[in-house]
Design a protein that fits this description.
single chain, 416 residues, alpha/beta, 5-stranded mixed sheet, 4-stranded mixed sheet
């Protein structure tokens, strides 16, 4: 094997790259490896956007350097001419080079390594290891995700999807996320939480919306309004977690109202008991501590309305645990009980459940929930906490697609 071939493998450059020379030079009191290269004849003078053969326009900014992966403890660079070409579609652009992405100052191997590391550790650690800034890491992640997303159709083959929103920053700033239930991948995310944001997803999906069979979501009206218009044929399922959360909120409202009533009646000791009973009535029965079980027994003996609210919450949980026709029958019994419970929060909840009854029946029949979407939302919160927040939603979306969207590149020289 010739020396040039050895250097191509060491530097991790693509075919179409010709090594002219490699030298070790001292720059700014540091030794660096500089490989002078040029583009092979077959890949020369192509548009960096569409890869079309084009006519040379000018020499551009002359010779340019691209940072490669370090060789041991020594930084390495590729150096080559960077002429500009005139593309009939994209105008005057810098000619494509096989070792780097358009607009990048780093080789593909360097960027793929950086993106892989960013998906598995904190950006500050990646920046220190690769001797770049964290802003550079963020830019590389965005570029790699855009490149890989441009090669694949993330919306191809969608059948069952889940839709939800997540707050990514203070000030009610949200992302709307769409997850494929069959693969668990995050397939689409955009800033915003309104009809226009979700309509943008269906605009990108186009005629393939007719292929959707099941859609899960919470009870947000803006989601169901768009779904009724854009995917009326799909079976819509209301997420069970959000329905039970409604019952939990109603139960807590009953508990607070009972506490205030006892305070006004001068029953201070009973009020104090309720003050510390929040988790005793909100937690699942299997998760209660011995002390919380004792508190719940006291409520059952002394406070009938609050205990009735607790049983209503637990029966609604049981509806989704049973599922199917038995779940629908249990839900019908729950609705009748809630309507005559004489507990204002639960009578109002019964009206809400009745409004979404068809969607809840779909959930019980098909067993579809937003669990995968909530898992993705939890992952996005971890990403945000690990990075101490993101300056822009686009940076968070790029990291989310890298880690949850199947767009993480393999390490150079290794199988995917």
């Amino acid at each position: 094997m010739s020396g040039a071939s050895v250097w191509k493998h060491v530097l991790g450059v693509e075919s179409g790259t010709v090594i002219d020379s490699v030298r070790l030079v001292r720059e700014h009191r540091h030794l660096v490896v500089v490989a002078r290269v040029h583009v092979g004849c077959r890949a020369r003078l192509r548009c960096s956007r569409c890869d079309r053969c084009c006519r040379r326009y000018d020499a551009g900014e002359g010779r340019r350097r691209w940072r490669a992966l370090d060789l041991g403890t020594v930084a390495a660079y590729l150096e080559a001419d960077a002429p500009r070409v005139r593309c009939p579609e994209h105008g005057v652009v810098v000619a494509a080079v096989p070792w780097a992405r358009p607009g990048a100052r780093f080789t593909r191997g360097f960027e793929d390594t950086c993106a892989w590391l960013a998906a598995h550790t904190a950006m500050s650690t990646v920046a220190q290891l690769l001797r770049v800034t964290w802003r550079t890491v963020s830019g590389i992640v965005t570029r790699v995700v855009a490149d890989l997303a441009g090669r694949t159709d993330q919306l191809q083959g969608l059948r069952r999807i889940g839709i939800d929103e997540i707050a990514h920053r203070k000030g009610h700033r949200y992302l709307t996320c769409v997850v494929d239930h069959d693969t668990g991948r995050l397939v689409w995310a955009r800033p915003g939480r309104d009809k226009a944001t979700l309509e943008a997803f269906f605009d990108e999906l186009g005629s393939r919306a007719a292929e959707l069979t099941h859609i899960s979501a919470d009870g947000a009206e803006w989601i169901h309004t768009v779904l009724a218009e854009k995917a009326p044929h799909a079976i819509r399922c209301l997420d069970a977690f959000h329905v039970v959360a409604w019952a939990t909120a109603a139960l807590d409202e009953v508990r607070r109202d009972t506490w205030r009533r006892l305070r006004r009646a001068g029953k201070i000791s009973q009020a104090k008991t309720l003050k510390g009973s929040r988790w005793a009535v909100l937690k699942n029965p299997t998760d209660l501590t011995p002390g919380q079980r004792a508190t719940l027994a006291t409520i059952a003996a002394d406070n009938g309305p609050l205990y009735r609210a607790y049983l209503l919450k637990e029966q609604l949980r049981a509806v989704f645990a049973v599922k199917g026709i038995h779940g629908r029958r249990l839900l019908a019994g729950w609705l009748a009980w809630a309507r005559r419970s004489r507990l204002a929060p639960f009578t109002q909840l019964a009206k809400t459940v009745a409004r979404y009854l068809t969607l809840i029946h779909n959930t019980l029949n098909h067993g579809l929930s937003n669990a995968r979407v909530e898992a993705t939302n939890t992952h996005l919160r971890v990403l945000t906490r690990r990075a101490y927040g993101y300056h822009s939603p686009d940076a968070l979306i790029a990291m989310a697609m890298l880690t949850r969207g199947g767009l993480c590149p393999p390490l150079p020289g290794r199988a995917a």
